[in-house]
Amino acid sequence: MATIEEARRPDPAAFRKAGPGAIVASWRSLLFLAIAIAAYAYGWQITQIDFPALVLNLPKAQRIVVGLLQPDVIAEETESISASAPLRIGDAASVATGASSSSIGAGTLTVTPGAIRAGDEVTLTLSGVRPDSDLRLSLVDTTTGNSRPIRNDKTGSSGSFNLTFSMPSSVSGGAYTVRADLSWGLGRWRPSEAFILSLQKTIETIFLALMATTFAMIVSIPLSFLGARNLMQGNRVGWAVYYATRTFFNVLRSIEALILVIIMAVVVGLGPFAGVMAIVIHSIGAMGKLYSESIESIDAGPIEAITATGADRFQVILFAVVPQVVPQFLSFTMYRWDINVRLSTVIGLVGGGGIGFLLIQYINLLQWNQAGAALWLIGITVMAMDYASAIIRARLV
Amino acid sequence: MLRIEHLTKVFPGGVVAVDDVSLTVPDGEFLVIIGLSGSGKSTLLRCINRLVEPTSGRIFLNDVEITRLSLAQLRQVRKRMGMIFQQFNLVKRSSVLTNVLSGRLGTVSPWQSAVGRFPLPDYHRAFANLERVGIPEKAYQRADTLSGGQQQRVAIARALMQEPQLMLADEPVASLDPATSHSVMKYLEEINQQDGITVLCNLHFLSLARRYATRVVALKQGAIVYDGPPRQIDQVRFREIYGEEAVEVEIA
After folding, report:
1. Which residue from A302, A310, A315 is facing B89, i.e. has the nearest CB?
2. pTM to 2 decimal places
């Protein structure tokens, strides 16, 4: 017969049944496993997962990587001059032996002969020009203005250049000019155009985020007091206001800024202001919730103490609540600014202005080096913001 | 004079914290309420200034029925009742001076307090009260830089700013070491004897009650089990209050 002591002792067999390992044995967990496998199989199929393609096509990312590694950040200052000498292409009757020429800077561009038939040889000569300059020669149809490249080369160390070639027979007759473009570096480097533009747009992005964060803060701080459980409890009206405020925050927070910017672009047009408004709406929800939660986490003692002095509700909030939440509010606001800088680069992609707008333009034009410059700036800005806000927040709290 | 009639507080969930307590406290008394944790001491004290709303019963201060007052009228009565707490309940990030001045909030308009300016006499009062509790040099420090005993003295100064008729002290020394406890209790004794402020003080330790109280009320499960002078609490009564297994601990 079992004693009372034994009866109180837990049954090891029962523990073995319910303890770890039990999950493998029960039919419910097997059913769960089957459902999970089916769900993942469907998910694999519907999202068209294809890892082999990912590996095989990785080289396609090369241009982007090259663009990132060689961002268009600095450019050498150049000077350029150009000249055109006429060249007539026609039938045998019009062939001339005389050369046509044109002066280019201190030198001369000569086309010999000045009139040929398609298929004939023609000689292009440059003399007395700046040595070691980049030279671009092209044939321009004077009636249509169409241009086709002849040769890209460099002028020799003596400041001359010579090229003899047969005019392809596919070139139809008419009046042409041979155009020579000479350009040379001045040895002075300056920020490239893409870099300057990216920098301007990055600054626009930071300020876009600043304006949006400030507007959102102005709206959400007063509302956050209405969304704080510890301040609103006690009566039905308070609860109703509390739930209404929290629902309002949740609704705003749940609408993606990417969707909002499209709506705002319809209202105020594409550009930074649409981006500001989209971030404002999204941030009111996000910041309001954080503010409310930080009010809820304060020490209730001072509220009790200030209430006991005969202070009214407003004074209690001002003297017992506000001093406790100010550092956290500032900290959250800094953090949100940081998030909003990142967010505004993304919403720029869909028309919200700022650096994102520029980046998507570069990508669409396949200007990978320029896109690389923009991406580097975004990365540096986000990291700097993150670092700065972390330091400031650490000092505040 | 404070008069409590058949006060009962039942919390949501059915816990009876205060059970039909009737008590009359004449002006100038130093009343210590003792009892185990959870015996209803704190709730009783909070019912007096209605930080906790009583379920039933009536409370009178100078024949004004506190339990019937509107919120606006209640604030007028709260101004005459100072309160200090076990955890001091200072606003930690604010300066000592701001904490002390907040004792005057009941007398300034919301708009004055919104800009954080109090009338000049209040500043004089604040420094006088800080002087009284012996820490005038701490006025501009942040409250959380002070030691526990100093913080409780700031809390006393804050309560004194109200120029109260009644001081409610909820376990004022439970977070302090024995030496500091006596220093804080002595300030309460001083304002009781010099200013004639009635003190209602919750305490854990019977030894402190014996030393400072002019009258002791013991609560057990929300009801009064002893009401009389501190000296008459002998071993038998002590066990009645604290339970059969209790041993009295002396606080030096």
Report:
1. A302
2. 0.74
Residue pair A285/A254 in contact by the 8 Å Cβ criterion: yes
The ipTM value here is: 0.92
Q: Do A308 and B94 touch (CB under 8 A)?
A: no
Q: Is B151 helix (H, G, I), strand (E, B) or coil?
A: helix
* Alpha-carbon gap, residue B89 to B239, rounded angstroms: 33
Closest CA to B156 of B77, B92, B103: B103
What is the DSSP secondary structure assignment for residue A237, as one 8-state letter? H
Would the CB atoms of A323 and B114 count as touching at under 8 Å?
no
Structure tokens at A45: 């199929």
Q: pLDDT digits over B77-91, tens only? A: 999 999 999 999 999
| Angstrom distance (rounded) from CA A121 to CA A98 | 14
- The whole-angstrom distance between A76's CA and the closest CA on chain B is 57
Residues B146 and B133 sit within 8 Å (Cβ to Cβ):
no
| Nearest residue in A to B48, CA atom | A308
With CA atoms as reference, the chain B residue closest to A326 would be: B93
Span A166-202, pLDDT tens digits = 888 888 888 888 888 888 888 888 888 889 999 999 9
B79·A309 Cβ contact <8 A: yes
Q: Could you tell me the two tokens for A158?
A: 């003596």
Q: Residue B20: exposed, middle, or buried by beta-carbon count in 10 A (0-12, 13-18, 19+)?
A: middle
Q: Name the pairing type of β-strands A174-191 and A134-141.
A: antiparallel
Count of pairs with CB atoms under 8 A, one residue in A, one in B: 82
A320/B91 Cβ within 8 A = yes
Q: Which among A309, A314, A318 has the least Cβ separation from residue B78?
A: A309
End-to-end CA distance of chain B: 33
The partner residue sitting opposite A312, judged by closest CB among B75, B90, B91, is: B75
d(CA A184, CA A133): 5
Closest partner residue to B105 (CB to CB) among A311, A323, A326 is A311
Torsion angle of alpha carbons A241, A247, A248, A252, nearest 10°? 160
